[in-house]
Each structure stands twice: as structure tokens, then as C-alpha cells.
């Protein structure tokens, strides 16, 4: 009756009959009346129990359904307005929880499943699937499984490694790096990955850190040991070369012995561990400003890192391009471990080449690549745009916003997934939404699982700000602060091998209450109102000039906006008679371009405050970087700005001439003597 557009003849009687029946009448059918073509049956309560009830009792559920629908619509509107990422966050955190639950199950069991166990499982499940593609040659899961068994048998038969030993590995990227690594782990050994760039004193220092008594060295790196071989022998360190033969005295060879070794599996009991917190690797920091530190990597950390690709949606059909050095955690733990976790294939590159990158991606149908921020920058510096490829995702860290934007413009809609976390740290952020410039995202769910804080930091005194009670102070949303991560059962910190002092230096105690302990990341970060977290600077990458703090990252980003500058490395140099350090930058000029002192002068005048403008510019052909493409500043700082001691061209910021002019010896002497106003 309510749906009628007009009141037909007889409608009044229908209403009267309805009110009468609601007071106690029985079911009754009224014939059509004039002007109404619908036969209407009133089924009234209480008279005919076999019939459905009509009236107010039937209307109440409709009211409830309408109210619930309206409420859900209102909630959806509120969610869209105030919590726009709620469902994306929920889906992503649910994946992490599923992976975390598996780790919790491992913790409760007497026998845990490690990354190596996972590899053995995959080798049994998909033996013929390519695991590694190296220089065009494919190595299946079964190939690596059998070769690593051979490695284990050789070291076991020769008595060179036993359960509980630590063996150092000095090798470039190649399949045998992984075979030796896995073979030693099958014997229950821990493996120390040595940085291939370190030499002499630093290299010897590494053995003292981790307690290794055996060294396995790649064929291409054996010559780097000649000057320290006597010291190694004196310290009773056995050296094995991954070669068929070697003329150096006292050096054992591995490849010739592998040919005679059996492929039989080593009993699983040999590698079994009862706790995920058992150390499995030692990974050394780059040592750019001092001797390397050996970060302790447990099975817990390696299993967590192996879930990175899976968390971002990686699957068994993916082909992953790894050109970062395996001696660092990004390539070994996330790259190789992640490939194993999803049962995928990895294309292993001995060394990154920007000119070969896209050709390799097309040739091997690469779908995921690992990156460091500078790697993407080098790709953007290539002359050609490349959009004919199958790459759908990049996983890494350190990507600056301007490079991120340029990468998309040049190479298409590739999903770039930032992961934040240091090798030894107990905290990880993941930018699962792909927000440009963010290293990660926090939300309500994340904060329930991980305890971190951003606190005020005094750059001048190089320490966190403490209030009158001696506790640190939180920063507001949008304000830069030092990132600290609470150390507890869920987020342990295992520290560094060989030095309790180095471990203690990374800890902050009594941060918010007496007795609490936090891991000091050393990174200045900012969290915006939407929960996106962005990297601002490293504590060590700042210097003070003219009473102000200068962030090297900020200045470098400004300089790289100049059309003829390809790359800039900013640092501070000491000038006699002046407090702090003056800004200096080493730059690389783009191909077919030239240095323009007037243009650079005007640019820094427009884009940088006076205290942040580099006083000196050093022209370089190549930038010195670590194995993970991180810029080295230490040697540049040490060499200063004396033109007579530097072979490259050096320019000085001349306000009088409104130009960067060549720095002469007489000008240098004038600056050092204080005659030149700065």
C-alpha cells in the first residue's frame, strides 16, 4: 500500500480493515476495489499460527537493518576521511602476523626451521628449478644442494671446520659463495662475511672480532692477501682458496678436492639448533670511518629478513636480480634468503653495471630487483630510457624522492618498495603503500607489535636531549627526531662480536623510565600525521658551521638539482682559526657538460642558507663508494682543501665575483691565515 503513487478508490476501507485486524482479527483476503488491481491479503498476529505475521512485528527487523546499514555507511565515511589507509594497513599487517606466528611456533619447538632448512626443503620439492643464474649459466636448487654437500664433506674430512666453529668468507658474488656458505652451515659452523674492499690491518682486525680460525678466499681476491699471509699463518689461521691449484705456501685449494667429495647429504642433526637466537652469521659494517664491526646475525634475524619479498607480494614465478654484494645483509639475507623462501630464481651479478642492467633484465625476464638508492641514481644517469621490460618491483632502501620520481619517468611504473633497517638493528619499517620519499609506514597495528620512539636530539653536543628528570623527550608529528627502538623479548638486540664496549655504545638507558633500554639507530627521522616515516640524516653526516647545523643529505639534494651535476658528496673540512667545519662538496660532472661557476653560485644563493653553501667544490671523475654504493667521506675529509695536495680541480665560493673560482695556492694561504673573509 505504501508503494502506491496515489490513493486508489477503496483505499480508506483497506486502512480501516487493517486497523481492525491488527486489534485481533484473523487472516482475510479482500477483493480488488475500484481503481485498484491488486488483491491484498492481511495476515494478522495471533489468529493463524501457520501463517507469517504482518504488521509492526514485521517492520521492526526492517528498521534494524536500515539502522545498521546507515551505521556502516557512516563508519565507512569516517574511515575514508580520517583513516584512508586502514584496509591496506590491515591486509599488510595480517601478512606480517602470519609470518610472525610461524616464528613464534619455531620458538616453542625444540627443533627450529632455519633458512638453510628451508633451502633443503625447496631443493627436495623443486630440484630442477633454476635457483641461480650467473653469467648465463643456470644452477638448479639440486645443483647447489649437492655442491654445498661436497663442500661440507671436504671441510669435515680435512678437519678444517667443526660444529661451533666460525669460518671467514672473503669472496665476490659467485655461485660458490652460496655453496661454501651453505656447506659450512651444514656442519653447524657460523660464517663471517668479510667486506671485499678491506685490506691489511682492517682485515686482520676482522678475525679478532669473530674468532675465525679458517679463511676461505675467492680466486680473484687471493692476491690481496699476499701482504698479510705471514700474519695469518702466525695467528694459526688456515687459508683455503677457491681454486684448482695455488703456488702460495700454506694455502689449501678447494676446487680440486670437491671433485672427489661425495654428494651425500650431511645429517640434519649436524646443523640443528634449539633456538632461533643462535648466531649463524657475522656481517661487518663498512668501516668507512674506522675499523669494521662484526654484527651478530642470529637465525631469528635471518628468517625475518627472508620474508621481505613475500611480504611485498613476491611469488615462486618471480626472477630476482641481485647485483649488491653478498657480504652485506641486503643481498644475502633479504636477497638470497627471500628467493629461497618463495622458491623463486635469482640472477646473480658479480658487480653492478648500470649499462648492462636493463639488458640483463630483458634477457632473463627479471621481475624484481634489489637496489640501494645510489644504484637507482646510476640507472637514471644512463642516457637511454628503458620501458620495454618485465620488471614490476624493486626492493631496497635509501631512495631519494627526486630519484624516485625520475626513475618512474624514465623506466615506467615499477613499484619501488622501501625497507628500513640496519644490519644489527632490531627494528624494521616497510613502505608497503609506495609513498614517494618514505622509508616506511607506521600505524595502530604496527605500534602494537614494535616499540619505537622519535626523541629530540642536540646536534651540537651530539646527544639526545634530556629533561630535568633525566629522561628523553618525544618530538611532535612532523618534527625531526632520533629514532630509538625498545629492546625487549620481541625485539632483541644481539650486538657486536668481540667488543662489549661497541655493543654498549649503541644502547641508550633510562630513556623514558628508569631501567628501560633502547637501541640507538643513529638516524634522524620524521613521522608525518599520516604515519609515513622519512629519513632525514645520519648523526655522523652533519657538521656545524657559523653556529648552525648543516645536513649533508639536504645540501647534496639541492646541489644535484643543477643541470650539469651528476652526483654530489657533501662533507665538512676544518679551517684554522674557525669554529666547526666549512662545507665542501666533491662532484661529478655529467657527460658532455662542463662546470659553470656562475650558475652554481646563483643556484646555492637561491636554494641554500648562507651557512649551508659549500665554500669549496672538488671535481672528481669517479666517486669513491663502499661495496653497497654508499659514498665515502672519510678520505675526502682527511685530504682537506689544499690545492697543492689535491690533483683534481678545486673551486672556491667568491662572493665578490659572484662565482665559484679556481682555488689557487695564494688564495688558500689567505684563507688559512685568516686574511680572506669567509
Automatic annotation (TrEMBL):
It comes from the Eukaryota. SUPFAM superfamilies: Acetyl-CoA synthetase-like (SSF56801). One of its GO terms (cellular component) is plasma membrane. One of its GO terms (biological process) is long-chain fatty acid import into cell. The chain crosses the membrane at residues 54-76. InterPro entries: AMP-bd_C (IPR025110), AMP-bd_C_sf (IPR045851), AMP-binding_CS (IPR020845), AMP-dep_synth/lig_dom (IPR000873), ANL_N_sf (IPR042099). The lineage of its organism: Eukaryota, Metazoa, Chordata, Craniata, Vertebrata. GO terms for molecular function: long-chain fatty acid transmembrane transporter activity; long-chain fatty acid-CoA ligase activity; nucleotide binding. Keywords: Cell membrane, Fatty acid metabolism, Ligase, Lipid metabolism, Lipid transport, Membrane, Nucleotide-binding, Transmembrane, Transmembrane helix, Transport. Residues 554-628 form the AMP-binding enzyme C-terminal domain. It is an enzyme of class 6 (ligase). It is found in: Cell membrane. It catalyses: a long-chain fatty acid + ATP + CoA = a long-chain fatty acyl-CoA + AMP + diphosphate; tetracosanoate + ATP + CoA = tetracosanoyl-CoA + AMP + diphosphate; a very long-chain fatty acid + ATP + CoA = a very long-chain fatty acyl-CoA + AMP + diphosphate. Residues 120-433 form the AMP-dependent synthetase/ligase domain. It comes from Scleropages formosus (Asian bonytongue). Coiled coil: none annotated. Its main location: membrane. Its EC number is 6.2.1.3. This is long-chain-fatty-acid--CoA ligase. Belongs to the ATP-dependent AMP-binding enzyme family. It is a multi-pass membrane protein.
Amino acid at each position: 500500500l505504501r508503494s502506491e503513487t496515489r490513493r486508489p478508490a477503496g483505499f480508506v476501507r483497506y486502512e480501516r480493515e487493517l486497523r481492525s485486524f491488527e486489534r485481533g482479527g484473523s487472516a482475510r483476503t479482500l477483493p480488488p476495489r475500484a481503481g485498484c488491481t491488486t488483491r491484498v491479503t492481511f495476515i494478522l498476529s495471533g489468529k493463524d499460527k501457520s501463517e507469517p505475521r504482518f504488521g509492526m512485528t514485521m517492520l521492526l527487523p526492517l528498521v534494524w537493518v536500515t539502522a545498521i546499514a546507515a551505521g556502516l555507511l557512516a563508519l565507512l565515511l569516517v574511515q575514508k576521511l580520517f583513516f584512508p589507509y586502514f584496509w591496506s594497513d590491515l591486509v599488510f599487517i595480517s601478512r606480517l602476523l602470519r609470518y610472525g606466528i610461524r616464528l613464534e611456533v619455531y620458538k616453542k619447538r625444540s627443533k627450529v626451521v632455519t633458512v638453510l632448512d628451508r633451502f633443503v626443503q625447496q631443493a627436495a620439492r623443486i630440484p630442477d628449478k633454476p635457483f641461480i643464474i650467473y653469467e648465463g649459466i643456470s644452477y638448479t636448487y639440486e645443483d647447489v644442494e649437492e655442491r654445498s654437500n661436497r663442500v661440507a664433506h671436504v671441510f669435515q674430512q680435512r678437519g678444517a671446520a667443526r660444529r661451533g666453529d666460525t669460518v671467514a668468507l672473503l669472496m665476490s658474488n659467485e655461485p660458490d659463495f652460496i655453496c661454501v656458505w651453505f656447506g659450512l652451515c651444514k656442519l653447524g659452523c657460523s660464517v663471517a662475511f668479510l667486506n671485499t674492499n678491506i685490506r691489511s690491518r682492517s682485515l686482520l682486525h676482522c678475525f679478532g672480532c669473530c674468532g675465525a680460525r679458517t679463511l676461505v678466499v675467492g680466486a680473484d681476491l687471493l692476491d690481496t692477501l699476499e701482504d698479510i699471509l705471514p700474519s695469518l699463518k702466525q695467528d694459526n689461521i688456515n687459508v683455503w682458496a677457491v681454486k684448482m691449484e695455488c703456488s702460495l705456501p700454506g694455502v689449501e685449494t678447494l676446487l680440486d678436492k670437491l671433485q672427489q667429495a661425495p654428494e651425500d647429504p650431511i645429517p640434519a642433526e649436524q646443523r640443528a639448533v634449539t633456538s632461533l637466537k643462535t648466531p649463524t652469521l657475522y656481517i661487518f659494517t663498512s668501516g668507512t670511518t674506522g675499523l669494521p664491526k662484526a654484527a651478530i646475525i642470529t637465525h631469528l634475524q635471518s628468517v625475518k629478513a627472508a620474508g621481505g619479498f613475500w611480504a611485498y607480494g613476491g611469488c615462486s614465478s618471480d626472477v630476482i636480480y641481485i647485483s649488491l654484494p653478498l657480504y652485506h645483509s641486503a643481498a644475502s639475507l633479504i636477497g638470497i634468503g627471500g628467493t629461497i623462501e618463495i622458491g623463486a630464481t635469482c640472477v646473480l651479478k658479480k658487480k653492478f653495471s648500470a649499462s648492462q642492467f636493463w639488458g640483463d633484465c630483458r634477457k632473463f625476464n627479471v621481475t624484481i630487483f634489489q637496489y640501494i638508492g645510489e644504484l637507482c641514481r646510476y640507472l637514471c644517469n644512463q642516457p637511454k630510457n628503458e620501458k620495454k621490460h618485465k620488471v614490476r618491483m624493486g626492493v631496497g632502501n635509501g631512495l631519494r624522492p627526486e630519484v624516485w620520481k625520475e626513475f618512474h619517468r624514465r623506466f615506467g611504473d615499477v613499484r619501488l618498495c622501501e625497507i628500513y633497517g640496519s644490519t644489527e638493528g632490531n627494528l624494521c619499517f616497510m613502505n608497503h603503500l609506495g609513498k614517494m620519499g618514505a622509508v616506511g609506514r607506521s600505524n595502530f597495528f604496527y605500534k602494537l607489535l614494535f616499540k619505537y620512539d622519535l626523541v629530540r636530539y642536540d646536534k651540537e653536543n651530539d646527544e639526545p636531549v634530556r629533561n630535568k628528570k633525566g629522561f628523553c623527550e618525544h618530538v611532535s608529528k612532523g618534527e625531526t627526531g632520533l629514532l630509538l627502538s625498545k629492546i625487549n623479548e620481541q625485539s632483541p638486540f644481539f650486538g657486536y662480536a668481540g667488543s662489549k664496549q661497541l655493543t654498549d655504545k649503541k644502547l641508550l638507558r633510562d630513556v623514558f623510565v628508569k631501567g628501560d633500554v633502547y637501541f640507538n639507530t643513529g638516524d634522524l627521522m620524521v613521522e608525518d600525521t599520516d604515519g609515513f616515516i622519512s629519513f632525514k640524516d645520519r648523526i655522523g653526516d652533519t657538521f656545524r658551521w657559523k653556529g648552525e647545523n648543516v645536513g649533508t643529505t639536504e645540501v647534496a639534494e639541492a646541489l644535484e638539482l643543477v643541470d650539469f651535476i651528476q652526483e654530489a658528496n657533501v662533507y665538512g673540512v676544518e679551517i684554522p682559526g674557525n669554529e666547526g667545519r666549512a662545507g665542501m662538496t666533491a662532484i661529478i660532472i655529467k657527460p658532455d657538460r662542463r662546470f659553470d661557476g656562475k650558475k652554481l653560485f646563483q643556484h646555492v644563493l637561491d636554494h641554500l642558507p648562507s651557512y649551508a653553501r659549500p665554500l669549496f667544490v672538488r671535481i672528481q671523475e669517479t666517486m669513491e663508494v663502499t661495496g653497497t654504493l654508499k659514498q665515502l667521506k672519510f678520505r675526502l675529509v682527511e685530504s682537506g682543501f689544499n690545492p697543492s695536495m689535491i690533483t683534481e680541480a678545486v673551486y672556491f665560493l667568491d662572493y665578490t665575483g659572484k662565482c665559484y673560482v679556481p682555488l689557487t695556492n695564494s688564495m688558500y694561504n689567505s684563507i688559512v691565515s685568516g686574511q680572506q673573509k669567509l
